[in-house]
Amino acid sequence: MNMGIDGISAMINQTGNSAANSRTNALQNKIGGDLSNSSDEELMDVCKQFEAYFVEQVMKEVEKTIPRDEDEDNSMSQLTDYFKEEMIQGLAEKVCDQQNLGLAQQMYEQMKRNYTL
Q1: Which of 5, 66, 89, 115 shows a CA-CA span of 20 to 30 A to 34?
Q2: Cα-trace Rg, the chain
């Protein structure tokens, strides 16, 4: 089976989109589910995951403001975009772990107060 560079870059693009969608869906299921029987640790974990997801989305929007090189090959662009997604995700998680942004703590306290968890 012989596959060209366009086929490979399409597969990479599809894999990246699938990974991003599955991560988003998993977080939505956790947040949208019944958290009334969750321990404090589980509730805080969900809040931290949302905080990391939020920071990741902000970073992606900021990255879109950076001008692209017009001479860049389209197939290489898709490949770098895939790895850039992974890097941004990891960086967002690291920022949330190392810095106290407070969003997760605020969400946790609000949920405890509003839902008497």
Answers
A1: 89
A2: 18
CB 51 within 8 A of CB 107: yes
Phi, psi at 89, each rounded to 5°: -60, -50
**76-91 per-position pLDDT tens digit:** 677 777 888 889 999 9
Half-sphere exposure of 80 (CA within 13 A, CB side): 8
Cβ–Cβ < 8 Å for 49, 35:
no
pTM of the prediction?
0.64
- Tokens 């809040």 sit at which residue? 47
CB 90 within 8 A of CB 45: no
CA distance 18 to 74: 20
pLDDT value of residue 1: 46
